[in-house]
Structures are given as structure tokens and as C-alpha cells.
Amino acid sequence: MGLSSLSGRQDAQSGSSQSQQHGPPYAPTNASLGGLPTVKLDVPITSVFLGLFLLGAIGHMTVFQVNRKHGHNFVISGAMFGFCMARSVACIMRIVWANRPRSVPIALAASIFVLVGSVIGFIVNLNFAHRIIRALNPKVGWHPALKLTFIFIYCLVGISIALLVSFTVASFYTLDPAKRRNTRDVQLYGSTVFAVVAFLPIPTVLVALATGPKTGRENFGVGTIRSKIILLFYGATLLALGAWFRAGTNYLTPRPASRPRPDQSKACFYVFYFTVEILVIWTYLIFRIDQRYHVPDGSRGPGDYSKSVFYEMETAKTGMRGRNYSFTSSLQPICEGPVIY
């Protein structure tokens, strides 16, 4: 459900409809991205995405548990599991909403889960970007100021989520135009923050590439640093595409639910929410981010990442270099998996 549907400026038609509403909570009167889900169209499509998200959750959690048993703690696999489950719950709530279209509490719950689920993917990509910056320019990447900057961004995202959720919930319990305008302002702020954070990994890594030293670079995990950058840019581009589209639609003048804009169609909803996210989830699973972005436990400064490279070199020397890479045959911890180039 789009942010702009939850609050905003009300025209004469929406104002009259508000006065006739029973509540609280009150149903939103503005058009939203994807509109009201229907049993005939939305339930089959959402069910397919639900299955894909659940399978992705199983895959990432399987990788996490297998690695943990071998002492390879890659918590980002757990975060990706959380990403999948958040989206699974969002799909379930939309299916329930389609079957109970007049239930405002269900509409509210579906809106919240759709709104905040993608944030986990943004945080994962930021973490990957920070690791790559440390490898490209260890002196800058390990500087306390950069660490504090990333911590600030994480805190900003957390605060933005709290504001968005609280103001969105509050907007369902008031008909006061002034309060709904305040809610819209917060939602525009939140969607802008999410769009910037989703795109941030790309320019930060590009700056590190352009300004970092040509010598003294490190590597980590398996595969070349180039492969890590390409995979990160792929994921960040897709998630940023969805975030920027959603932010852009929120800045447009709200329309009544009976007259949505073309950019608020169901096709746009499923493409710029679930499709881009499922592509990232499954690509990260197939290309084994748990091996590719692994860093040694206890890394605290320049040179620590190179410890994982030595293990990769030893693995290559023992004849692992030429093995074919597949997801099903390589559910081993990093020290036992194939080397990827």
C-alpha cells in the first residue's frame, strides 16, 4: 500500500466521504500504490510472491544454520531471512485484506508491513558497502569517523521507521485535516530517507574506488573484489529503483481512491515492491553472499580482512579452484566451499 494513501490533502469529495465514515479507525480516502487488493486478481499474484518469499526464507535460514554449525557466523543470512519473512507477512496480510476489503485494521496492518519490510535490504547493502570500502581503502574504511557515520545512518533509519509507523497508525484514528497533513509530511520525509539510503551504497563504493590507493588493497571472503562490487551494485540498483519510484509517487498530488493515477496501478505495485525485492533475495542466495562477503571474526583494523584471503589461497592450492559452483553442492562453511572468480 502506498504512503500517499494513508494521509494527505483531501479534496471536496474525500472530505464529504470522511464525514460519513464510521470509526475510528477510518479508511484512507486517497488512492494508493496498488489500490484495494481483490480476490480475483491480487490473491493469485500475491500467493506466487508469498511462495517465493517463503522459499527464500528457507534458503537463507538453511545457509545460516549450516554455517553456524561449522563456526561460520554470517548474521546477514539471518537478516535476509528476516527480510523474506517480513515480506511473507505483508503478502499474507494483503491476501486477508482482499478477502475482507472493509476491514480497516487489516488494511492498516498490511500497509505497515509493506511500508517497512524493504528497509532490511537497504541495511544489508550498506553493510556490504562498508566492508568493500574497508577493503579498497583500509585507512579510511577503518577510520572511527566513517564507522560513526554508518552508525548514524542506521539510527536515522530506525528513527524514521518509528516515526512512519506511529504517524501512519495515528492517521487512521483521526479525521483532522491538519493532523493528516502532518502525517503526510512525515511520510514524505520517510520515503525520501529510504530512497537515499537505498542508493547510498553505490556512490560510497564509487568514491572509494576513485580515491583509494592502488596498492595496499585487501580482499575478503571468496571471489574477487570486482565480483563483490558488481553484485552489490546489482542489488542496490534494484532496491533503489523501487524506493525512488515509491518516493516519487508520494510527492505527487494525492488523488481520491476512485481516480488513481497510472503510476498507482497494480502492475507498478508488484514490480516496484515485490519483483525487485525477490530478484535481490534470490540472487543473493544463489551467489552465496555468506561466502562472498564473509570477513574474519574479530576484524578491527587494516590487515584483518586479509586473513580470509589467505584461507582462500590455501583452498585454491588444494585443488578447489576448478570445481563447478552450485548452490546445492556448496552448503559448507567458507573454509570448505569453492573459490569463485
TrEMBL record:
Keywords: Membrane, Transmembrane, Transmembrane helix. This is Uncharacterized protein. The chain crosses the membrane at residues 43-63, 75-97, 103-128, 148-174, 186-209, 229-247, 267-287. Residues 1-27 are annotated as: Disordered. It comes from the Eukaryota. Residues 7-23 have a biased composition (Low complexity).
